[in-house]
Design goal:
Strand content of chain B: 25-35%
Strand order of the largest sheet of chain B: 1-2-5-4-3-12
Oligomer: heterodimer
Number of domains of chain A: 1
Helix content of chain A: over 70%
Radius of gyration of chain A: 17 Å
Order of helices and strands of chain A: HHHHHH
Shape of chain B: globular
Shape of chain A: globular
Structural class of chain B: alpha+beta
Helix content of chain B: 25-40%
Strand content of chain A: under 5%
Distance between the termini of chain B: 62 Å
Number of strands of chain A: 0
Chain lengths: 173, 286
């Protein structure tokens, strides 16, 4: 329960930051994608199921406010979380390379999918332009932010796991 | 089997994923087919919105008005809103009076149009959130059905067209701006009354801060760079005569019948903070 509340809170805060504060901190109208950091991080820290649910609800929030077609972002974020869950067995808290790689991979996949479904289908063919002016800048900015945000998420998760272990020890066996 | 208590009953992730995927796809299909977005979630979203409003109003304005006095900010905010609307109105009136001095025909026309849209009943609203990604140019304003906002109402800022309300909740409304990649507006070149289609474009907006227009029939070669483009009377959703921007480039299409080019919008979309919603909808006689 404690975990659910704190994760929900985190999603909501990141959503608000992403749509408000970071929009005014944008460089040449590019702002970072905080929700993808949260979704991906919980994916590889906690596994497929949790990644999936966190992605689903993050996407739902985006859908509720910004989608033309409801459900698109929920689906997209959900798969991002789920796929990141596969890397749980390779994840170690001390290693920073894998998380950064996964987060940038997720952001890249996310934007490619949006380009494919929302732009290519409307015959916007200049992929090179979108790659250079939207996808890559967002990836770099997201990665920059994730260096900070990832450690916050990591710390919160470790704290939660500690508390869970303690209370499990109290009631269990 | 019996020993499994309810809390330990687990559906495999695979099936959950499939179930949620199906739900999402059904939701996408339903919202696409019935043309509704959000639906019942709008009310939920409205409740969540309280903190967001406060968030943007303190954090957002803090970012842009660092120098200004924090203590007075909240008190001044309400007054500010009122005054800004008044300034907007007064500027428009001033413009109209200025234009009156000139005897030129097309400026008289402009004056008429200007008068026309200062007659519209308007409500001021703050931009409180922008699209989560970098692909689309939608944003949220802090007025909704409680303030009488409806879908398809036009949104302007200062002197130009910003966009259109495409979805509305109790205390917020979603606006699609004219620079959004999926936006299309019927425009009209003011001095020749020729219609054209003004379509937002992420690519040209990102590169040159312009949006595109096409299908302009200008057989007399009268449209030049710098001409004002306003919303057309044939548009089904936009009120007539709202300034969109000025022609910045113009080229003839390969069919030699129509022209296309780019328009520089008058509104500064990057720093959009306050907008005016026109509280009338276009009568299309449906």
């Amino acid at each position: 329960m404690r975990r659910k509340i704190s994760v929900a809170l985190m999603i909501v805060i990141c959503f608000f930051l992403q749509t408000t504060l970071f929009k005014s901190l944008s460089f040449s109208s590019i702002s970072p994608n905080l929700l993808i950091i949260v979704t991906a991080s919980f994916g590889f820290m906690r596994g497929q199921k949790e990644g999936m649910f966190i992605g689903f609800f993050s996407g739902l929030l985006v859908d509720a406010f910004f989608a033309n077609v409801f459900g698109f972002y929920a689906l997209l974020y959900m798969y991002v979380g789920w796929v990141n869950g596969f890397f749980k067995k390779h994840f170690f808290p001390d290693d920073i390379a894998l998380p950064m790689l996964l987060i940038s991979g997720s952001d890249f996949f996310y934007n490619i999918t949006i380009y494919f479904f929302r732009f290519l289908f409307r015959s916007r063919f200049s992929f090179g332009f979108y790659l250079l002016h939207i996808i890559i800048p967002e990836l770099v900015y997201t990665l920059l932010i994730s260096i900070l945000l990832y450690f916050v998420i990591l710390k919160i998760n470790q704290k939660l796991e500690e508390i869970e272990k303690r209370s499990a020890g109290k009631f269990g066996s | 089997m019996r020993r499994r208590s309810k809390s330990r009953f687990n559906i495999p992730t695979k099936y959950l994923l499939i179930a949620l995927t199906v739900i999402c796809i059904v939701a996408m299909y339903v919202s696409f087919a019935l043309n509704l977005s959000g639906g019942p979630l709008n009310t939920v979203a409205g409740v969540v919105f309280g903190p967001m409003q406060r968030g943007i109003n303190s954090a957002g304005t803090w970012m842009s008005d660092k120098a200004s006095n924090f203590k007075q900010l909240n008190d001044v905010m309400a007054e500010n809103e009122e005054l800004r609307a008044q300034v907007e109105q007064l500027t428009e009136e001033l413009d109209a009076i200025k234009l009156d001095e000139y005897e030129l025909n097309n400026l008289r026309e402009l004056l008429e149009l200007d008068k026309q849209y200062s007659d519209y009943d308007k409500t001021a609203a703050y931009v409180i959130g922008k699209d989560a990604g970098n692909w689309f140019e939608n944003f949220i304003i802090d007025k909704g059905t409680n303030d009488g906002i409806e879908v398809d109402m036009n949104v302007i800022a200062g002197s130009g067209l910003v966009g259109i309300v495409y979805d509305v909740g109790p205390n917020y409304a979603k606006v699609r701006s004219i620079i959004d990649d999926s936006s299309q507006v019927y425009g009209m070149v003011l001095n020749t009354s020729d219609n054209c289609v003004v379509s937002g474009s992420l690519q040209s907006m990102n590169r040159d801060q312009v949006i595109g227009f096409s299908d302009l029939k200008d057989t007399d070669q009268k449209v030049h760079v710098g001409d004002a483009v306003v919303t057309s009377n044939v548009s089904s959703k936009y009120m007539e005569g709202i300034l969109i921007g000025y022609v910045s480039t113009i080229t003839e299409d390969s069919n030699h019948l129509t022209k296309s080019g780019t328009i520089t919008p008058t509104v500064d979309f990057e720093h959009l903070q306050q907008v005016l919603v026109i509280m009338e909808k276009k009568e299309t006689g449906e």
